[in-house]
Predict the structure.
Amino acid sequence: MDTFIIEGGHPVSGEIPVSGAKNAALPVLAATLLTRDEVSLERIPKVRDIRTMANLIESVGAEVTPNDGGYRIRAAEVTSPEAPYELVKTMRASSLVLGPLVARCGEARVSMPGGCAIGARPINLHLAGLEKLGAKITQEHGYIRAHAPHGLKGGVIHFDRITVTGTEDLMMAAVLAEGETTIENAALEPEVADLADLLTKMGARIEGAGTSTIRIQGVSELHGATHAIIPDRIEAGTFLIAGALAGDPLTVCGVNPNHVSALIDKMRQAGVEFSFPADDRIEVRAAGTLRAVDLATKEYPGFATDMQAQFLAMMTQAQGESQIIETIFENRFMHVSELLRMGADITLDGNRATVRGKTQLSGARVMASDLRASASLVIAALTAQGETVIDRVYHIDRGYERIEEKLRGVGAKIRRAR
Ligand code: EPZ
């Protein structure tokens, strides 16, 4: 298993590029199953989860051809509408093929996604939505089967709680359903709007994507399209926090500043200053002194849960006490025990972490536990005294493209050891 070896205390300066968004790429890859024509996708990040999804859609019958910056995909035939356990157990987002497979072939069999490090993460809302569109849902031998032999019929879906992939799954199911579908209490994340952009290019009729009510008029079939996905707002946010701690200055390139406004507001409250040299660039330098600020994660446009771990690492370097509340997932503080080993002063109480700073972190051997916790450890290591070794960096490879090369390119002392 690969490790990262990081020598702390070095500034990061210059331009660091942002890749396409992993969480936009996953649903758009699944969406290619909705047409027999070729769909060309660009700005797709080369990360493990994307390779897993490409393998999954290939296993159901799609022809997947990598090209520079993305894939050309043609699902001329869907030979077996099944997402096997071996693939689903490595990536929960495999449930994103449920909607497209039922819409395309009238049937889908998806292994029940097990829990994951950050929480139970059930898909009950996805299944309830499919039932509203006329699918029959059964569960056997650890597999969910969704069956709609006469096709899906439009309906009204109200999500009891906001779900990002649930919204995406049902949008993909509804575009080929007969009649109108309304999705209420839909997720507002930019990745939802990006998926709607692709589906519309493919001939779908969607209104309101990016708002809490999405209306879809079903059509009989979709055609091919070309689509470049949005930049990764979480990768961009991760680099902004690295810059706030060690930037001299750091310029994050290829970002959409509108997608990181909640993070920028919160970082400004902590004393970080930004400049915007171009509409897709944000410059940030190490703040003289950081102030402790409180935070509660929220669905978009609130502060992203995927940025909580990285922000918490930054609060170890702020003066004062910061209360960080995680409202989306039930177990998303796995990074805390590792930060404590680096000398941080943090106490946990349920979904609340209290961080007292400023503490001088010291390099240590630590272990990555999930994607964003790993990013938090990299950030902490950049500012720690001495050398940090991070084990199990396959977690970070799931969602960050060549992160050690990108950080080394701006002066960080980081290398990967096999
Ligand atoms: C998406 O996960 C993202 N993944 C996650 O990013 C992100 O943390 C999350 O949204 C929240 O923003 C992708 O887009 C591939 P949810 P998703 O459904 O859709 C509960 C990363 O680090 N829930 O919005 O799975 C659920 O347990 C990953 O890139 C149900 O109870 O999240 C959670 O508590 C991690 N039943 C809450 O809702 C359901 O049927 C929000 O989950 C669905 C969800």
